[in-house]
Amino acid sequence: MELHEKLIKIKEFVQQETVFCASLFLAVLSAFAVRPDRAYLAYPDYRTLSLLFCLMLIVAGLRSLGIFEMLGQSLLGWAGSLRSLSLVLVLLCFFSSMIITNDVTLITFIPFTLLVFRMIRRDERVLTLVVLETIAANLGSMATPIGNPQNLYLFSSAGLTMGQFAAAVFPYAGLALLLLVAALVLQKNEPLGKEAGTAVSAREEEKGKLLVSLLPFLALLALCLLVVFRVCSYGPVLACVVAVVLAVNRKLFRSVDYYLLLTFLCFFIFIGNLKRIPELNTLLVSLVQGHELLAGILASQFISNVPAAILLSGFTKNIGALVTAVNLGGLGTLIASLASLIAFKYYAAEYPGKKGAFLAVFTLWNGGFLLILCGAAAALTL
To answer: pTM (2 decimals)?
Structure first.
């Protein structure tokens, strides 16, 4: 019985951390071809790993203060109709993801959306909205170097300038915003019920205390941005973030996605080993170089865009094209961006009988956005 229970736990872990397990398998497998030595120490991008760790801590601190829920509830007070409510929620996801990342945005606002639509008794409209919020978070996050892990890694490791980064993502982020607004404006508009007002809860008496609690995290975020733009080195900032979090709220260390960090580390080992095998390195360079857009989008559909970015970056010099590819590649299948799984899990938990409907609607909308944005990318790169 104990062995059976252990096997069940292992199965559940593999299902929950599939990407990490795959990266670990690849790292171990490559280690048989290139035996571990001192060169392994040069594989990881320590700057990216440090920044990811720091940003996870900071965002966890901001979430612990409840400021994102407060922001959403305050903005709901402006919504006078179902269309304006949907527009507010989608735009919240689009612009919030630029700072707090796409996965944290969905963790914050998808449950909030499900709650609000339960309160106003409009469950039939929530599926499409959740899908559009997911698309908004995935595409909004592309607009900044810290919006998602693949941007942070590529911007940091490749030494892109802000101009190069902007050229790679701004046209598509702008087009995505127009498409999202159009999709919402064209939907049927209806007045909100009286229940919507109960979703807004003012906490005026707590605003002073909140501001004081907020300041350390804002200061740390500013320091991280200085590292991103290469004004400060990552070592002192990492030490500063750890020290402040230890002093303010050490429980935040439990909120860090350590498996994501380990996934990065395993992929660094795998890619580092592949580059030391001349035949494989030459083959992969020939497959990726000059075909970054297609390679990044296709790879993202099967292994998700973060691993795709890490994997393909080792075999091309055109990192700008790869940034475009892996960000657009977050559209498409449910696993193309792992953040999309968050939306699916929350929706499936609330409506367990509608998993198939979610997948159908998700695939339809994501496929449409992907086709349009890929068309734009093809036109811009001709």
So the answer is: 0.81
